[in-house]
From TrEMBL:
Pfam families attached to this UniProt entry: THOC7
Record's protein name: THO complex subunit 7
Family per record: Belongs to the THOC7 family.
GO CC annotation: THO complex part of transcription export complex
Main localization of the protein described in the UniProt heading: nucleus
GO BP term, example: mRNA export from nucleus
InterPro entries: THOC7/Mft1
Any coiled-coil regions, as ranges: 91-165
Organism whose genome encodes this protein: Macrosiphum euphorbiae
Length: 215
């Protein structure tokens, strides 16, 4: 089906139509009328031809306008496609930036938490003495403890010595008491210048006991 048949079919269906179709229909009717009319006057033929040229110019103008509109629509579609692609790209970049910002925020929170924990530990460390001072204090305490142990041993030795001396003294006193009890029947006016061997032995033992006690 050629273009002429399409135009005729359209004319039969829509009549003259509207807009560009109407211009084409009028141009086609005028052309067919001009072709089928036998003009006797060249002026009338020229007027009919000029009228067809006017319609032809209008159709050409409408065609160029339609082409321009079509081209503009294509350009707008391309522009919209580019804008859509750019928007999609910006959305993707924005999502990436949001994800990156979330990661940075997470890291910042972790750093802040670690910094707070560090500050707490630093305060605790500041409250305690340095390790060198603690080690020195520990050595001093060890030396002091060793000195106390030595002092305790010396005191225990002295106590043992005093216990022995006291035991000897108590033994001597018991012996002296027994001796005095045995000699209780003797005359009270006995002179102290006369001592027997037993008395001399007791006195000697007593002096030996008193001498260590004085030390």
């Amino acid at each position: 089906m050629n273009d002429e048949e399409v135009i005729w079919r359209k004319l039969l269906i829509d009549g003259d139509g509207i807009g560009d179709d109407r211009r084409l229909n009028i141009l086609l009717k005028t052309y067919l009328k001009w072709c089928n009319t036998k003009y006797t006057d060249p002026v009338e033929s020229q007027k009919a031809m000029e009228k067809m040229l006017v319609h032809l110019n209008l159709c050409e103008h409408a065609m160029k306008k339609s082409q321009a509109v079509s081209r503009m629509n294509v350009e707008e579609m391309l522009m919209y496609d580019n804008m859509s692609s750019e928007i999609d790209h910006n959305i993707t970049n924005t999502k990436t930036e949001i994800d990156r910002a979330k990661e940075e925020l997470k890291k910042a929170k972790t750093i802040r938490r670690n910094r707070m924990e560090y500050d707490v530990l630093a305060k605790l460390i500041i409250q305690h003495p340095p390790r060198t001072d603690t080690a020195k204090r520990l050595d001093d305490l060890k030396d002091e403890l060793q000195a106390l142990k030595m002092t305790k041993n010396e005191i225990n030795q002295k106590l043992d010595k005093r216990r022995k001396q006291l035991h000897v003294l108590m033994s001597a006193l018991n012996d002296l008491t027994d001796s005095l009890d045995d000699n209780g029947s003797m005359s009270e006016d006995m002179s102290y210048e006369t001592f027997d061997d037993e008395d001399l032995d007791i006195l000697t033992r007593k002096d030996d006991v008193e001498e260590p006690m004085s030390d």
